Amino acid sequence: LAADPSSGGTFPKSRLRAVSSRSRDRGTCRSPRWALPPEGWERVVAGRASEPRWAERCFEAAFLAAASGAMDKVKQTVERARAAFGSGRSRAVEFRIQQLKALERMIKEQEREILAAINADIKKNEYNAYSHEILGLLGELALVTDKLPSWAAPQPVEKTILTLTDEAYIHHEPLGVVLVIGAWNYPFVLVIQPLIGAIAAGNAVVIKPSELSEHTANLVAKLIPQYLDPELYQVVHGGIPETTELLKQRFDYIFYTGNPVVGKIVMEAAAKHLTPVTLELGGKSPCYIDKDCDIDVACRRVTWGKYANCGQTCIAPDYVLCDQAIQSRVVENIKKTLKEFYGEDVKNSSDYERIINKRHFKRVMSLLEGQKIAHGGEADEATCFIAPTILTSVNPESRIMQEEIFGPVLPIVTVKNVDEAIQFINQREKPLALYVFSNDKKLIKRVIAETSSGGVTANDVIMHYSLPSLPFGGVGTSGMGAYHGRHSFETFSHRRACLIKSLGLEGANKIRYPPGSQKKVDWAKFILLKKFNRGKIGLIIMAVLGVLAALIVKNHQPLLRRKAPLAVLAGQRLAQLYKY
């Protein structure tokens, strides 16, 4: 645009490029507040020099037009996914396996690009990025493609005496269109792992990577349509406006990984459509170190779990509980291990990551105010570096003990014994993970029995996440629902109850048809409720009943033909009673 006389400056054309081509063709802006005549922008500017703030209003309208276009695109993405699901092609197990193998091929063929994107987002070297974000996915894909035919097959269930001749099973059917919202701290695996389960269950999926890890998000948006069905599996890239618009749409399931604050927003939006959710949140995961354990080993494992990914792991040990008598040993062992892991100059270690951005850097640093730093504390805002830090003499009521740290800071809180540790844990919100180190298995089992958390690992940290046979998820404010392995398939499936009955043996149904009578009730009680002792008396009774049954069959065949259905039920019930 030419200079806007009313503003005294130049209003660049680049700020108005968001106007749709349709609007440009007819010379109008989408805003209902004003319209442009066909003669174009420059002549209108010259003719409206006296109107104050005209250029600003022009930009505002163009911005709204662009925003409206982006929101329309989100809606269209969901509609395309629903139409693709409606085609039915994602229901075939063979198709699902083909898509999963394509996803596996994507990871293997684009490994270098994936590792580079992760490094650009959180400064993670290729060895750590591969072990944290690729290795587990390849294992999960191998498991799911191998087991999916058996998981998706009809699952027979136990039958009652009334349904012994019928077919009863659970059919796992896809839910429909699923929304997967990823997180930035593990930007690749936390998008792809739930995607694996959603594909395996036969759903269409809309994927929303975190905009904070923009390099990985851009790569996911680029690769998914290249390898997977572009209509069934779509990526929406953007920030809060796009996510807000996504949550206005109706989905059949929402899977969100992030923090409890946003988790509540997701759940509230889902409730408007009665959409079920899985919320993988976080919390303050405690770690109790019993004085009766190998302190050196315990501290090495805690150090690895706490400071990996610069402390930005949802199941990292958030704080340590230990006896005052071993606190100094714990501190010294962690310091020794930090040197072993990262060398003398941790800032220059390629194995040590960075905080995701300056906002989170400032948040973590603010938690250190007023705390006693036993080790670390160094920081560099320009590079979002915070050194591995240990705090002692921590007040349980201080701010750092009230919110999830999500950074490389480890408070140590002293307790007198395991009783006090259990009480301390139970006075707080239920965590996503709980860790306990001890040589005493009874103590470990007691901590498990008397506390609540999403998951537990004893004598190690984080490792329950790596076992696909265990469900991974939270409880209370740390989340709801679970996934990994078969649990992912179950999460994204509807367990449909199926009973297929015969049209024969109609006489057996007379006991449930009107009119009612005591005789019918007695028959129903006998068939459904009666139990016999399987001891010697029970065996004698069964033998006598067997002889009587043989005599009846021999002498009353015409009658039995009329009463066969009830006789069959009675015989089956007797056999079942003997079994139990």
UniProtKB/TrEMBL annotation:
Q: Which Gene3D superfamilies match?
A: Aldehyde Dehydrogenase, Chain A, domain 1, Aldehyde Dehydrogenase, Chain A, domain 2
SUPFAM superfamilies the record matches: ALDH-like
Mention any Pfam family matching this sequence.
Answer: Aldedh
Where does this chain mainly localize? endoplasmic reticulum
Q: Which residues form the Aldehyde dehydrogenase domain?
A: 67-495
Principal EC category: oxidoreductase
Q: State the membrane topology.
A: Single-pass membrane protein
Locate the active site. 280
Its GO CC terms are: endoplasmic reticulum membrane
Q: Can you provide one Gene Ontology molecular function annotated for this UniProt record?
A: 3-chloroallyl aldehyde dehydrogenase activity
For this UniProt entry, which segments traverse the membrane?
Answer: 537-553
Q: Which domain of life is it from?
A: Eukaryota
Q: Which reaction does it catalyse?
A: (2E,6E)-farnesal + NAD(+) + H2O = (2E,6E)-farnesoate + NADH + 2 H(+); dodecanoate + NADH + 2 H(+) = dodecanal + NAD(+) + H2O; heptanal + NAD(+) + H2O = heptanoate + NADH + 2 H(+); (2E)-hexadecenal + NAD(+) + H2O = (E)-hexadec-2-enoate + NADH + 2 H(+)
List the residue ranges of the region (Disordered).
1-31
- Record key words, sorted: Coiled coil, Endoplasmic reticulum, Fatty acid metabolism, Lipid metabolism, Membrane, Microsome, NAD, Oxidoreductase, Phosphoprotein, Transmembrane, Transmembrane helix
Coiled-coil spans in chain: 93-120
Q: How does it assemble?
A: Homodimer.
Q: What protein does this entry describe? A: Aldehyde dehydrogenase family 3 member A2
Give the species this sequence originates from: Crocodylus porosus (Saltwater crocodile)
